[in-house]
Specification:
By secondary structure, the protein is of the alpha/beta class. The chain has a single domain (8-216), classed as 3-Layer(aba) Sandwich (Rossmann fold), CATH 3.40.50.150. It contains eight helices and seven strands; from the N terminus they run H-H-H-E-H-E-H-E-H-E-H-E-H-E-E. The protein has helices at residues 8-16, 23-36, 46-58, 73-80, 95-107, 121-124, 146-156, 182-195; strands spanning 63-67, 87-92, 114-118, 134-139, 157-166, 200-205, 211-216. It has a seven-stranded mixed β-sheet, sandwiched between helices. The longest helix has 14 residues, at 23-36. It is globular. The structure holds S-adenosylmethionine (SAM). The site of S-adenosylmethionine has 20 residues, from helix 4 and strand 2. Residues 42-44, 68-71, 73-74, 91-94, 97, 120-121, 140-142, 145 line the site of S-adenosylmethionine.
Length: 217
């Protein structure tokens, strides 16, 4: 999702000065729009995709977890940042959308490093082995589940490991006292939970819809 709170001209300028997506990601964006209609807005934005690849490379992550895969844009960006032997484990409840992701992993020659686990992430994340620490996790699923995913991932995260939580600005609604719907409340509670957690240092980045970077001490 793009930053809705940015002046459109500034947003265009930002895209014009960020390395653009390649043909494969452009094709995925197009296909997602065709099959998912309005829901295509769930896909991360191109600048965020570039950021995910870069951060995966920068922290030399070997074991990466994604919660919320949809048609696969963010998973491709994460997987492309992995070094040799690196692995990305993706969680989602939907076979319909993730079938598209699987097809694009094939096209992108990433099937050797990406695995998909279907089912509610709150259950399936607990199946990850405790003896293989997670270096980097990206949370981009149902907003009401963020706090649960965060706690499970914190227990699996290596010291110095990172959790990236998407949509933490929620189009600015988290900061608007007149808004009080369930999604907004869940994100405010999640943002407060992270702030109060003395196990971590965090920074909320105004990329796309807000991306909180959380580093475990
Ligand atoms: C915002 S989309 C993810 C977008 C994706 N990161 C991308 O770049 O295209 C959210 C995804 O979370 C999934 N989801 C919703 N509830 C879930 C749950 N309880 N467990 C796992 N995945 C869930 C949805 O099926 C959907 O595909």
């Amino acid at each position: 999702m793009k930053a809705t709170y940015l002046d459109p001209a500034v947003g265009q300028y930002l895209f014009a000065h960020t390395t653009p997506p390649d043909d494969l990601l452009d094709a995925l964006t197009l296909e997602t729009r065709e099959v998912a209609g309005d829901r295509a807005g769930m896909q991360i934005s191109p600048d965020q995709g570039r950021f995910l690849t870069m951060i995966t490379q920068l922290c030399r992550a070997e074991h990466v977890v994604e919660v919320g895969t949809f048609t696969g844009y963010s998973s491709i960006c994460l997987a492309r940042g992995l070094g040799p032997g690196g692995r990305l484990v993706c969680f989602d409840v939907q076979e319909k959308w993730t079938a598209i992701a699987r097809r694009y992993w094939e096209k992108a020659a990433l099937t050797d490093r990406v695995e998909l686990r279907i089912g509610p992430a709150a259950d399936r994340l607990r199946e990850l082995p405790a003896d293989r620490p997670v270096d980097l996790a990206f949370i981009d699923a149902d907003k009401g589940g963020y706090a649960v995913y965060y706690e499970i991932l914190m227990s699996l995260l290596a010291p110095g490991g990172l959790i990236l939580a998407d949509n933490t600005l929620w189009s600015g609604r988290v900061a608007d006292p007149t808004v009080d719907d369930a999604g907004t409340r869940a994100l405010r509670e999640f943002n407060d939970l992270v702030m109060a957690d003395d196990r971590v240092t965090s920074v909320m980045l105004p990329i796309a819809d807000g991306l909180t970077m959380i580093r475990k001490h």
